[in-house]
Design goal:
Elements: H1 5-15, E1 20-23, H2 24-29, E2 40-45, H3 52-61, E3 64-68, E4 75-80, E5 84-90, H4 94-102, E6 104-107, E7 113-116, H5 119-129, H6 132-144, H7 150-159, H8 163-170
């Protein structure tokens, strides 16, 4: 048994040949100065490998309960009695595919490697979501001052119609 949901899901997805990246609060934590607690793991999947039904069967075999959040299955909501909760989101846009391609690899313990959204893409995802906690995550990332490709953020913020929010948070 893996020690946490991220490792368990990462290894399962790797075994199925599904390319994935860490998103959400855990990705934002990589670029903040202080860690924020979160109740789940969020992963963006490049594809569903052998298919959504196969993925659901393999998840269930490892103790995950699976519920599709949308009829087409773009989001899988998972729960595990020991490992907790997770959301698997299947990339459906050109932007999500590009964000997966820009992700950075980070080695964790015991040789486990995780791909994490680049800070610019964490910001864009959080601008799109736009909830109070997402805005707070963006503000915390900006306080930490990681190097940012602001043209990338502005391009996608304009595309997703959240440029005003970005400019307000950026102070201009």
């Amino acid at each position: 048994m893996e020690r946490n949901a991220l490792e368990a899901l990462g290894r399962l997805l790797d075994d199925l040949g599904i390319r994935w990246v860490l998103i959400g609060a855990l990705a934002a934590n990589r670029y903040r100065m202080t860690t924020r607690l979160t109740g789940d793991v969020d992963l963006l999947l490049a594809n569903t490998g052998p298919g959504l039904e196969h993925l659901e069967r393999d998840l269930a075999a490892q103790g995950w309960s699976v519920r599709r959040a949308a009829p087409g299955g773009e989001i899988l909501r998972l729960r595990h009695a020991e490992l907790g909760a997770a959301d698997l989101i299947v990339a459906a846009t050109d932007y999500e595919a590009a964000a997966i391609g820009r992700a950075r690899e980070e080695g964790l313990r015991d040789g486990f490697v995780v791909r994490v959204l680049a800070p610019e893409d964490v910001i864009v995802f959080k601008l799109i979501a736009g909830r109070a906690q997402d805005v707070a995550d963006i503000e915390a990332i900006l306080v930490a001052k990681p190097p940012l490709d602001e043209r990338h953020i502005e391009r996608w913020a304009e595309f997703w119609d959240v440029l005003d929010l970005w400019r307000r948070l950026r102070g201009g």
